Amino acid sequence: MNKMFNEDCLITMNRAELRNSVDLVVTSPPYNMTKRKGGYADKSKRYDIYEDWKTEEDYIKFIVDVFNGYDLVLKDSGCVAFNFSYSKENPSLPYKMVSEICRQTNFNIVDTIVWKKKTAIPHPASKNRMRRVCEFVYIFSKKGQELKFDTNKGFKIGSNGQKYYDITDNFIEAKNNDGVNNINKATFSTELVDKILNIYAKPNSLVYDSFMGIGTTANSCLNNKHNFIGSEISKKQIDYYNSKI
């Protein structure tokens, strides 16, 4: 409980003690959008360890492997909140990736949250591209659980005995990120994670983040009285989190 493992998430998810123990996965992987190579001195490199320029085929295979790992650790009643976006290098990648997840793993997509950020990347030199002010958070459940997986939605019981659940829109406005630093130029958003937890995490849930980074999901879990498990290959980012916590 409440530990970040300094290792590849595929190793973490094969730990016997984590089998069928996770209530919710919340994560934002590297977007595979940086093609220019030049070492850490190159400003296009977003992370201190991970190199965000796999081929499209290799990246999709990696994400499929990750979802097969989620199948090991996630309870049947759980779901996955998977934030992903695109850039000029890979605008079709999210759609290909989601398709292969549904085809090759034990997961189906059940909802899509539109995340509107406070600021967006401008493209003043482009005549045919819009400003990316929104990203998606794809919600997956295990196959066969599409109408059964848990959420945190409240409900009222009508006079006819029918449950009427609180209305929750698939549109979230939240801060872009938790600020850039020398080891991670693409941090996650605590405000976004807070709102996702409010929708999907029942009290005292165990939440797993396979790409923990500087610990955004961990912070949000502790602030909202949940437990967490995280994986992060960068020791510097884990040390950064520990120094802040």
Description of the molecule:
By secondary structure, this protein is an alpha/beta fold. It has a single domain (3-244), classed as Rossmann fold, CATH 3.40.50. The protein is built from six helices and ten strands; from the N terminus they run βαβαβαβββββαβαβα. It has helices spanning 9-12, 56-73, 93-104, 190-200, 216-223, 235-244, and strands at 3-5, 22-27, 74-84, 107-121, 132-142, 155-157, 163-165, 171-174, 206-209, 227-231. The longest helix has 18 residues, at 56-73. The protein is globular and about 60 Å long.
Poorly predicted runs: none
The gyration radius over C-alpha positions equals 18 Å
Number of domains: 1
Global geometry: globular
The name CATH uses for the topology is Rossmann fold
Proportion of helical residues: 25-40%
> Could you state the CATH homologous superfamily?
Vaccinia Virus protein VP39
In spatial order, strands of the major sheet run 1-10-9-2-3-5-4-8
Protein structure class = alpha/beta
CATH domain class name: Alpha Beta
Estimate the strand proportion: 25-35%
Q: What is the H/E order?
A: EHEHEHEEEEEHEHEH
Oligomer: single chain
Mean pLDDT: 90
User: Do you know the CATH architecture?
Assistant: 3-Layer(aba) Sandwich
Question: How many individual β-strands?
Answer: 10
The separation of the N and C termini measures 15 Å
